[in-house]
Amino acid sequence: MEPRRAPRTVIDPKVRHVGFFAPGAPPERSVSGPPDPVAAASSSSPPASDLSPSGNSLSPVMIPPPRHSSADHVLLSSSSRVVPFPPVPASPLRRDSLAIAVGGSYNNPSEYVPAMSTTVSSSYAGKMVGNAEFADDARGSSVKVAAASSSFPSGGFDLTAVKASSVPASGLTTVSVVKTLPPGITETIVEKVGGSVEVQNDRPASSKPLKEKTSKAERRALQEAQRAAKAAAKAEGIKVPASSGVVAPPNAKPTKATKPTSQKNDNTSVAAFEKKGGDRPSDKDRKKDAPHPRMQYDDKTRVEKAKRRAVMKQTEARNRVELFRHLPQYEHGTQLPDLESKFFQLDPVHPAVYKVGLQYLSGNISGGNARCISMLEAFQEAIKDYSTPAEKNLSRDLTAKISSFVSFLNECRPLSISMGNAIRFLKSHIAKLPLTLSESEAKASLRSAIEHFINEKIVLADKVIVNHAVTKIRDGDVLLTYGSSSAVEMILLYAHEIGKQFRVVVVDSRPKLEGQLLLRRLVGKGLSCTYTHINAISYIMHEVTRIFLGASSVLANGTVYSRVGTACVAMVAHEFRVPVLVCCEAYKFHERVQLDSICSNELGDPDILSEVPCREDINYLDGCTNSENLQLLNLIYDATPSDYVSMIVTDYGMVPPTSVPVIVREYRREHIWV
Amino acid sequence: MWRRSASFILDQRCQHDAASSPKPETLYLSPPQTESSCMAAFADPFNQNPHPNPNISAYYQTRAAHTGVVTNDWLAQAQAAVGRHPDDIPAPEADLGESDSGKPFSVTQEFNNWRKQPDLAEAVAAIRALAAVIRASEATTMMELEIELKKASDSLKSWDTTSISLKAGCDLFMRYVTRTSALEYEDFNSAKSRLIERAEKFGEISYKARRIIAMLSQDFIFDGCTILVHGFSRVVLEVLKTAAQNKKLFRVLCTEGRPDRTGLRFSNELAKLDVPVKLLIDSAVAYSMDEVDMVFVGADGVVESGGIINMMGTYQIALVAHSMNKPVYVAAESYKFARLYPLDQKDMAPALRPIDFGVSIPSKVEVETSARDYTPPQYLTLLFTDLGVLTPSVVSDELIQLYL
């Protein structure tokens, strides 16, 4: 597992991986061939690097990762022969950029040496910049350890064996051993790290004189790195007491012990933050650090920060797909009882918000409109019970309060764009409240504003959409819909009510099978329906005359962001020249532009993909899911290019996808969004 | 064949009247009406579409009479005889006095009068007729006036439900005129005069639109180019006329324009300007597309997607041009922008038109009589409008700003 990560340590911070990766490969190889000291010693030789998948898959966009081979030889001899990067001749420049990469904000050292962030003193973090050897070794050793651990059956974890394999490695290797070992043995090794790290700190001195020739970008990167290091040092200073606590009690986390393999190294630090849950930061702090909706989850600094503030302990999933690593993904189903038990400790979160959050988490509330409405209603509730603390300003304090709610909800499930828009509306309304209003008046005004928003932008908008869309249904039509969209359902029911003769094809897909609910309601009302899965889309498309789709959001370039599979349906429809109508309320429009489904998406529970409920006999993937070579990808959304969309039906009428920016512009200017 | 119908003759007679006397009072000799409201006037069979034939759209019933190949020349003579440019005819003002003095005022009638001028677009005629409604109105409150205007525009729209520019023109007029601060004036008369002023202005803008478009499109016509034209569009004619006046050297290919031979008329007009012109049968478009540099068409209506609804055959020409990478330019006044969004060809009210095949068709054979088709925006290059030279996607922008 860890070797997958390792390559990122030495990548230039400005470069992202583009293209497809097979990140799981290294462990497999190390399983097949035991670490060979000779090969490892000559790790810079082509054959060795050929083995490395990352080396192979270097796409043209990627700058070959810098690597300082000469200085590493000694140390590498102890690591496995799997070297993730091709050899690069040592040059002063490269060496320099390598140093930057290690300390840079994009590649936070804590990712690789998590124990360090909690156990190592702050002075160490300051020295990280330029400590190229350290990172290299950490990587090399982590490869080795992972290799050792992956050779064991996934369930049983032979501690002695792991220890044995890690001990012969250099003192440094223990740093990353922490990541893969079950918590039971972390403490001892972590202590070792503390010692060994100190020993290594004098190394970077050799790299310093080589810095004269630096490009602008590099200087900038260096600057950033220094800044990050400083910030890290600061953070370390704060954290020290809490983190030292982690090391001491060995069995403080019972949940971890139950499923050691799924644990991430991050858990130690998460647990640490949890421990100081008593001194939970104030609302103000929470607001400052509320995770940005588009936070990049491969940016470790940010993630650490967010986690420190998090109410909930989320376990990160293990085998994340490389391309989607910037998205948050957590183990599903583990947080609910945990969160429930913490109910009484969470005073900043209003019970109504808390309830909604739990419903998001359990999936009881899904669908853009439903989530948005329930969130707004919870906020209404919270505002009703709110009273401004002494010496505080209502608008500021309430905004901070709402922000803390939002960050809580975001932890439960990433916010949808519609919710983001609703929150923006609410906050701007709070900001615009006249100072002369008394508290009760202000609260009443806010609550009525929310009520108004729900009624006008969601309920009424849906009615208008229904009226528009129904004009496009003719007698004898065959309408196809995908998944379950509330707007489309209303359209179909209304068209049936006013006596149009048409047939509906409900297309559905695993694993959520939301279409069945829709189907049930439609059949219950007497519509004639056909139900099929998305696999049959190209067959069924022949007979279809119109496609009605819902959307989670429509972006400024006309891209429709919707339930995964929508793009596929729209593409097939386009190919068959069937008009595609997207029904979306204007409050879900967003001025962002998105070209693919990668940059911004949501990851669902990957395990659902592998298991088929109630069919034990076809659960072929049983047991494979823990394999390092298997990454399951369960995307929730995808982006449909505007070319495939014939029309967007909104509360402002029927517009072509090219007019979305116009609506966004006019909407902002004329209406309630400030 | 249908041109020989009674309606044609009747229309021709009306035209005689209209041309010989600027005040076509004879047309007002409708049966006595009980009230002067426009709706009542409309309910009157005489003011309705004279021959409510369900198979032929009103537009094609009367328009052919007004602008038939024969009629055009004849009308020019008639105008020469009158000695005045038809646009200068102060007919509405004259009518105004009469309707004020108790005579029933009919917006449809007014509209038909205006429409008889060959240069005046249907929508502009409607706009002027609606302006006349305001002038002739006896309403005493703003609300009353607005209701009256609404009724008038509704009756105009129902005169030909298939006409897009008529509907769009009426809607735009209502928007333009009533969306004004005039309604906040305390004095009704000043508010009304303000409305009239606005209505006149809008009529003026609409009337000038064609000139503006002609000026805008000059940059796109280069010396030595070959232009393919489909249908008889007065805007396109104006564009080419201006280009010819600017001493541009270009060649025009005209499609025949079956069934009403609009291409023949167009080539006739161009020949008068000494522009080299070549006639094609409608099916020779793809054959001659390789020598064409650009396609110029007018539009019956510009819809919200940025596509156009135009005379039958435009779609296939656009398809051919698109596949051969030739630009397709549409010249259309902004009053043709309609809040319509057809998804496909059948997704609009069809305008029907009889087709004369020259031989009798067996009764079992069905004939497609639709007169228009819809060209989706992806096949159009640019739209020349009085708002400027627009890409198809801007149409929706303009419409949203107008109507929201």
UniProtKB/TrEMBL annotation, chain A:
<protein>
    <recommendedName>
        <fullName>Translation initiation factor eIF2B subunit delta</fullName>
    </recommendedName>
</protein>
<keyword id="KW-0396">Initiation factor</keyword>
<dbReference type="InterPro" id="IPR037171">
    <property type="entry name" value="NagB/RpiA_transferase-like"/>
</dbReference>
<feature type="compositionally biased region" description="Basic and acidic residues">
    <location>
        <begin position="1"/>
        <end position="15"/>
    </location>
</feature>
<dbReference type="InterPro" id="IPR000649">
    <property type="entry name" value="IF-2B-related"/>
</dbReference>
<dbReference type="Pfam" id="PF01008">
    <property type="entry name" value="IF-2B"/>
</dbReference>
<feature type="compositionally biased region" description="Basic and acidic residues">
    <location>
        <begin position="273"/>
        <end position="304"/>
    </location>
</feature>
<dbReference type="GO" id="GO:0003743">
    <property type="term" value="F:translation initiation factor activity"/>
</dbReference>
<comment type="similarity">
    <text>Belongs to the eIF-2B alpha/beta/delta subunits family.</text>
</comment>
<feature type="compositionally biased region" description="Basic and acidic residues">
    <location>
        <begin position="209"/>
        <end position="222"/>
    </location>
</feature>
<dbReference type="GO" id="GO:0005829">
    <property type="term" value="C:cytosol"/>
</dbReference>
<feature type="compositionally biased region" description="Low complexity">
    <location>
        <begin position="223"/>
        <end position="235"/>
    </location>
</feature>
<keyword id="KW-0648">Protein biosynthesis</keyword>
<comment type="subunit">
    <text>Component of the translation initiation factor 2B (eIF2B) complex which is a heterodecamer of two sets of five different subunits: alpha, beta, gamma, delta and epsilon. Subunits alpha, beta and delta comprise a regulatory subcomplex and subunits epsilon and gamma comprise a catalytic subcomplex. Within the complex, the hexameric regulatory complex resides at the center, with the two heterodimeric catalytic subcomplexes bound on opposite sides.</text>
</comment>
<feature type="compositionally biased region" description="Low complexity">
    <location>
        <begin position="248"/>
        <end position="261"/>
    </location>
</feature>
<feature type="region of interest" description="Disordered">
    <location>
        <begin position="1"/>
        <end position="74"/>
    </location>
</feature>
<feature type="region of interest" description="Disordered">
    <location>
        <begin position="196"/>
        <end position="305"/>
    </location>
</feature>
<dbReference type="InterPro" id="IPR042529">
    <property type="entry name" value="IF_2B-like_C"/>
</dbReference>
<feature type="compositionally biased region" description="Low complexity">
    <location>
        <begin position="30"/>
        <end position="55"/>
    </location>
</feature>
<keyword id="KW-0963">Cytoplasm</keyword>
UniProtKB/TrEMBL annotation, chain B:
<dbReference type="GO" id="GO:0005085">
    <property type="term" value="F:guanyl-nucleotide exchange factor activity"/>
</dbReference>
<dbReference type="GO" id="GO:0005829">
    <property type="term" value="C:cytosol"/>
</dbReference>
<dbReference type="InterPro" id="IPR042528">
    <property type="entry name" value="elF-2B_alpha_N"/>
</dbReference>
<protein>
    <recommendedName>
        <fullName>Translation initiation factor eIF2B subunit alpha</fullName>
    </recommendedName>
</protein>
<dbReference type="InterPro" id="IPR037171">
    <property type="entry name" value="NagB/RpiA_transferase-like"/>
</dbReference>
<keyword id="KW-0963">Cytoplasm</keyword>
<dbReference type="GO" id="GO:0003743">
    <property type="term" value="F:translation initiation factor activity"/>
</dbReference>
<comment type="similarity">
    <text>Belongs to the eIF-2B alpha/beta/delta subunits family.</text>
</comment>
<dbReference type="InterPro" id="IPR042529">
    <property type="entry name" value="IF_2B-like_C"/>
</dbReference>
<dbReference type="GO" id="GO:0005851">
    <property type="term" value="C:eukaryotic translation initiation factor 2B complex"/>
</dbReference>
<dbReference type="Pfam" id="PF01008">
    <property type="entry name" value="IF-2B"/>
</dbReference>
<dbReference type="InterPro" id="IPR051501">
    <property type="entry name" value="eIF2B_alpha/beta/delta"/>
</dbReference>
<dbReference type="InterPro" id="IPR000649">
    <property type="entry name" value="IF-2B-related"/>
</dbReference>
<keyword id="KW-0396">Initiation factor</keyword>
<comment type="subunit">
    <text>Component of the translation initiation factor 2B (eIF2B) complex which is a heterodecamer of two sets of five different subunits: alpha, beta, gamma, delta and epsilon. Subunits alpha, beta and delta comprise a regulatory subcomplex and subunits epsilon and gamma comprise a catalytic subcomplex. Within the complex, the hexameric regulatory complex resides at the center, with the two heterodimeric catalytic subcomplexes bound on opposite sides.</text>
</comment>
<keyword id="KW-0648">Protein biosynthesis</keyword>
